[in-house]
Amino acid sequence: LYIMFIAQVVQIESIRALADRVKNDIDLQDNLKLDSISASQLSRRLKEMSSDFWGAVFTQVAKIAMQKTTNSLSATPNADRVHIIDASTITLCLNSYRWADYRKTKAGVKIHQCLVYQDGHAYPDRALLTTAKNSDKSQLDELLITDPNALYVFDRGYVDYKKWDDYCDAGIRFVTRIKDNFIINPIDEKSVDGTKMTESIVILGDPKKTIMRHQLRLIHTVDTKGNPVVILTNDFKMSALEISEIYRSRWKIELFFKWVKQHLRVKKFYGQSANAVYGQIWLALITYCLLLL
């Protein structure tokens, strides 16, 4: 783990370059309690380690990061947490990674991530790794937990009327953004005092096909550039302004993915198997948590 942490932070190009780094760095040797380690030893060890093991390590480290962060930030660590859910695709060469189903001309894997945002700070929580062909919404249930203090935020890639009805039944609160082709059945509409925003009570869907059982709130607002934004939520207690600001926080997960891809090694891999690729991505997420700590 320590060696791979160094590989991630320094973005070392290959297993051989990593072995050379250990051989030529006396301070690193002292920390590792090793004089040297060969490229073949490193390669063999990485093959032996299941990516599921690294996934379990990430879960533990993320939990510690969450506890230490929230305890130091808030007197009420469980209050008003925003759980932001999104996915990011890493494209791969089809000839080298044929197991990673994506498109006819390219392969790829996908990081499905839940990022917790509280008191102005964000930290990774739950994560799933799949081939890129898996849709975002197919992994949504695995990233959600029933928590009365959690408000989930996700984008337009997670549309599923049945799931949303189930979430309403389970008391899972969510905020999302809708597509232009939604069938909206308005029940009530009003303007938001002191703003140009409007909000409505609606039921989504076609009565002749698929229609939701639960009523939702629809909020019409604009983004920072003045473009119209339509936000949907099953939370009827928070103000329209609060809901609008919470949806804007979704940008935090975009910044998270951007940082990971720019500063850690998740675009080029030390091996070509699914175990090697997933293991390296888990190690990158572990590294992020360790840096956060």
Describe the fold and architecture:
By secondary structure, this protein is an alpha+beta fold. Helices cover 39% and strands 25% of the residues. It has 10 helices and 9 strands. Strands 3-2-1-4-5-9-8-7-6 form a 9-stranded mixed beta sheet, with helices on both faces. Helix 1 (2-10) packs across helix 10 (274-292) and helix 2 packs across helix 4 (39-48). The longest helix is centred in the first third of the chain and has 23 residues, at 51-73.
Task: Describe the structure in brief.
The chain is an alpha+beta fold. It has ten helices and nine strands.
List keywords for this structure.
nine-stranded mixed β-sheet; alpha+beta; elongated; single chain; 293 residues
What proportion of the residues is helical, as a percent range? 25-40%
The rounded distance between the terminal residues' Cα atoms is 16 Å
Principal-axes shape call: elongated
Cα Rg: 22 Å
SS elements, strand count? 9
Order of helices and strands: HHHHHEEEHEHEEEEEHHH
Mean pLDDT, rounded to whole units? 91
Spatial strand sequence of the major β-sheet: 3-2-1-4-5-9-8-7-6
* Helix-strand makeup class: alpha+beta
Number of helices: 10
Largest beta sheet, briefly? 9 strands, mixed
Please specify the SSE layout and strand pairing.
Elements: H1 2-10, H2 15-24, H3 26-32, H4 39-48, H5 51-73, E1 81-92, E2 107-118, E3 121-131, H6 140-143, E4 150-153, H7 161-170, E5 173-177, E6 184-191, E7 198-204, E8 216-222, E9 228-233, H8 240-248, H9 251-263, H10 274-292
Parallel strand pairs: 1-4, 4-5
Antiparallel strand pairs: 1-2, 2-3, 5-9, 6-7, 7-8, 8-9
